[in-house]
Each structure stands twice: as structure tokens, then as C-alpha cells.
Amino acid sequence: MKKMDTEFALSAVPASHRSGFGKMLVVMLGLTFFSASMWSGGELGQGLTFMQFMGIVLIGNLILGAYTGALAYMASKTGLSTHLLARYAFGEKGSYLSSFMLAFTQIGWFGVGTAMFAVPVAKMTDINVYVLIAIAGVLMTFTAFFGMKALAIISFVAVPLITVLGSVSVFKATETLGGMEGLMGYEPTEAIGLAAALTICIGSFISAGTLTPDFTRFARKKRSAVIATVGAFFIGNTLMFLFGAVGSIATGFADISEVMFTQKLILPAIIVLGLNIWTTNDNALYASGLGLSNITKISKHKVVIFNGIIGTIAAMWLYNNFVGFLTVLGSALPPIGAIILADFFILNRGSYRAFSDMRFKAVNWIALVAWGAGIASALFLPGIPTINALLGAGAVHVGVTKLVAVLSTKEFALTQTEKVSQ
Fold it and tell me: Which contacts of 115-118 are long-range, i.e. CB under 8 A and separated by 24 or more positions?
């Protein structure tokens, strides 16, 4: 008898394998509790007043929450991953391009996270950083191999620990600044523009947000999926940015490992940050495995091992080019999610035909054109690139699809009229 794929990489998750609110919240918190978000928070903390910083994080999380909450609703209703949902909008072979891009970015995040763990440990212990990267990469790949169950267990352990450590770091940093009055009175020496700050805030997690369905497809109820997702982004993302920003204001370092080293928290930080990075890296590998499985039809478990090897090898390069990597994410990934959302909620009025009954077209060229339009909107239009990408891609996908439908109807009517006249 053929063994059931309990991760359902190429099919909808059945009701018998769905989970309740608690498990979904833990998994999504593990996804958002990412040290790279602390790094982004550190960048913002040095360039904004504290009140500006809180405003940017609030607006950014509102946008991320709306985006990911809508994707979570879709996933819970259909039981499908991002990559299988993309087949409806992009076509079966068209979805391969979006799956590759999303998988590539998640492999990249895996590499960044692995290096973020290895670098501070190397500074403290004098162990070669590449040896540490190799060890961490192997261990994180091993647990990602076991899928959702392993993600939930690691998240359950890591989330409370990183909350405690981050709170201690913030308390020490606030004391250094002279209390809340000193924190509220902070003025940056080199200010960041608000549009650029919002781009960093949204762009730092938009790639993971686009992959929300990979996890929330296991939710038993649509309401639970949405609440768990939005709540996780507001709690997790806000805390990560706050931990990074306050430490950065107090010490002058945007890198969270440097902050904690200055605060003499490096030993507990190694343990807890290691677990924290482990949760997000496992989520990244899991999602990248689903993406390449959609393309190759190879078992997700096997693809995860390959992706882990690639991410580990490229870890230091990604770590040293973090800001550039964020720029790529901010322009190329949001259009994918926007097109999927527009296709489901607007063109199909919130309902898809069952995945098992579908015969997908090979490529929906309209969706690919819309993706290009979204990227162009991010790069060339004034305003906030990520928002431009979302709105541009969604508008073009809906507008061109409806225009083509109208023209096709008129052409059909003319053809029928000609047949009658003959």
C-alpha cells in the first residue's frame, strides 16, 4: 500500500488532518519570531524617533496582517499551499516560476538565519564560523525533514524563551538610556525617511507572509486561521522589531548579536537565539520544500534536504548582503500574493473549484504580465515599493482578465452572427 503523504505537498489537506487554534498560533508565532526582524528593527531604531518607530511598526503590521490574514482564510477554506493556490491564477506550469522564486527566497532566509546564529557563537568561542554554520545547517535541516509536528514542538519551546530574553535586553537598554524618558527623547543622528522605513518594516517579512497558506492550510476553521495569523504578526513581529530597536538605540548596533554582546547577554542569547532562529529556519525550509516539490513532483522530504545544503553553503554571502536581499524581496514577492488574492476574492468571488477536480491551463500569461507589472510598479512608481507592487499586480491581473473576457465574448458573438448570416 502506498504511504500517505502527511504533508500533502501536492493535494489539499483533508479535514482529518486539520489542527485547532492553539497549534496554529504556536506555529505562526514561531514563524514571526525571527532574529532578522530584530536586525531590521535595529536599522529603524537608529533612524527614527521612538514614536515614529512605533507608528511605522503599527502601520506595517496592519498591512502585513491584512495581507496574511486574507491568505490564511484562503488556505483554510481550500486546504491548499501557496504553490497549489498559484496554479489557479498562474496555470500549472506558470506556477512553477512563482514557486521557484518563493522557494529561492526561503532558502536564502535559511542561510541568513544560520549565519546569524554562527557569527556571534564564533566570536565568543573562537570556533571557526564555517564549522558552526555546517553544524547548525545540518541540525536545522534534520528537524525540518519531519514537517509540521517538529515545527510546532520547536516553536512551543522557543517562543517563550525568546520573549523572556528580549524583554531582559529591552529592560537593560532602557536603563542605559535613562529610563522611558530617555527612550522617548531619543533623536536619530541620521534620519530614515518614513517611506523607506515602512518599506523595511513590510519588506523584512513579506516573503514569509506570502507563504502563510503553507502553514494555515492545516487550520480546522477559517476564523482560527485568520486570528492566529494576524495575532502572530502583531505579537511576534512587533516584539522582534521592538527588541531590535531599543537595543540599537542604547548601544548603536543594529545587529542584535552585537547588542547582546555589549549587554553581556551573549551566553543566554546563544541558546535562545539559536532556538529562535531554528523555528524560522525550519519554516523556511518547509515552505521551500513545498515550492520545489510543486515543480519537480519529488517528495518534500527529499527536497528539504537539498534546500538545506544549498542554504548552508550560501549562508555567509547572504548574511553579508542582507539589505540587498530585502530590496529584492520587497519588489519581486508581493505581486505573487496579490495576484493569488485578486484571483480568488475578486475574479472567483471567494470560491475555487475543488483542486482534485481541476484541469489547469498550462500557463496563464495574464498573471505573468501582472507579476511583471507589479515589479515595475515597485521599482518605478513613487511611494512605497511594496504597496505599489501589491496594488499594481492585483489591478493588472483583474483588469486585463476582465478585458480579455469581454473581448472574447464580443468575438464569439461576431462569429456566431457571421455563421447565421451565411
Answer: 115/315, 115/316, 115/318, 115/319, 116/35, 116/36, 116/39, 116/257, 116/273, 116/277, 116/319, 117/270, 117/273, 117/274, 117/277, 118/315
Instruction: Please tell me the distance from the alpha carbon of residue 289 to that of residue 309, in angstroms, as a whole number.
Output: 12
Helix axes 300-313, 266-296, angle to 10 degrees: 130
Count Cβ atoms below 10 Å from residue 141 Cβ, excluding itself: 22
Q: Are 342 and 399 in contact (CB under 8 A)?
A: no
pTM of the model: 0.89
Condensed to tens digits (0 to 9), the pLDDT of residues 279-328 reads 888 888 988 999 999 999 888 888 999 999 999 999 998 888 875 666 66
DSSP element (H, E) containing 397:
helix 385-421
- As a whole number of angstroms, the longest Cα–Cα distance in the chain is 90
Distance between CA atoms of 128 and 316, rounded to whole angstroms?
13
Phi, psi dihedral angles at 19 (to 5 degrees): -120, 165
Question: Which residues, in sequence order, are CB contacts of 107 under 8 Å at separation 6+?
Answer: 284, 285, 288, 307, 310, 311, 314
Q: What is the pLDDT of residues 215-246, one digit of tens each?
A: 999 999 999 999 999 999 889 889 999 999 99
